[in-house]
Design a protein that fits this description.
By secondary structure, this protein is an alpha/beta fold. The chain contains ten helices and nine strands. Strands 2, 3, 4, 7, 8 and 9 form a six-stranded parallel β-sheet that branches. It has a three-stranded parallel β-sheet with strand order 1-6-5, with helices on one face. It starts with a helix and ends in a 7-residue tail after the last helix. The structure holds zinc ion (ZN).
């Protein structure tokens, strides 16, 4: 009877500790692939992939400075290597620099060693001007459970998106605004690009910001958005 009660209490204490520690985990610690953040707050993240580009990115940064908005830039290593000054400017402006690998090869189509090289090369370039990135967006959204686990070991959450603006398909600035406003929800992670030129995003992002604000939305970085997570939603 005595040993039974010892076992009982050990199990009870173990479960209590587990439940408490699980409930204290943040969204990022519980969920490693994030497409949007469940929240009732009108808050969204603008994410911009594939730069820095010598024309698109400076135009984009100028608008963001004027509107006083911070975004998350998913940096493509090979473009960061070509445009280190623009990368440094993005960091100096206070934007969040995140990892989009080096060459835009799909991570699910290459070997583990190649993936590691892709991620670490871009990480080094970012760390020349900013803190170690903690967010990874696999090029083309190509990922699997193994890649998510590998990223996790390197200190990354895998970030996808819930709203594709389709700016990469040659749309106009007006279409960009419409695509965002027709689909935006609290907690949306909005996908845009600055790796090519011309592109609707450089012309339309100011209008997107104005319209989102007019609808009562705040715009934050992805890392900030994760803090709005409400577990019951
Ligand atoms: Zn990309």
């Amino acid at each position: 009877m005595k040993s039974f009660s010892w076992v009982f209490w050990s199990v009870a204490v173990f479960f209590t500790i587990t439940v408490i520690s699980l409930s204290q985990n943040s969204f990022q610690e519980e969920i490693y692939v994030i497409k949007k953040v469940p929240t009732s707050q009108k808050v969204v993240a603008l994410t911009i992939d594939d730069g820095p580009h010598e024309q698109a990115t400076p135009e984009l940064l100028a608008t963001l400075r004027e509107k006083q908005v911070k975004v998350t830039l998913f940096i493509l290593g090979k473009n960061a290597e070509k445009n280190p000054g623009i990368l440094a400017q993005a960091a100096a402006d206070g934007h969040e620099l995140a990892n989009h690998a080096y060459s835009h090869r799909f991570l699910n189509k290459i070997s583990q060693a190649e993936r590691l090289e892709e991620i670490e090369k871009t990480e080094k370039l970012i760390m020349a001007v900013a803190p170690k990135p903690t967010l990874l967006r696999p090029p083309g959204g190509g990922y699997n459970d193994g890649i998510v686990a590998e990223a996790r070991k390197l200190g990354y959450s895998t970030i996808l998106w819930s709203l594709d603006t389709r700016d990469w398909q040659g749309i106009s600035a007006d279409q960009l605004v419409n695509n965002v406003m027709a689909n935006v929800k609290p907690g949306s992670i909005i996908l845009m690009h600055d790796g090519q030129y011309p592109i609707a995003t450089t012309k339309g992002i100011g209008l997107v910001i104005d319209r989102l604000r007019a609808e009562g939305y705040s715009i934050v970085t992805v890392s900030q958005l994760l803090k709005y997570y409400e577990p019951k939603l």
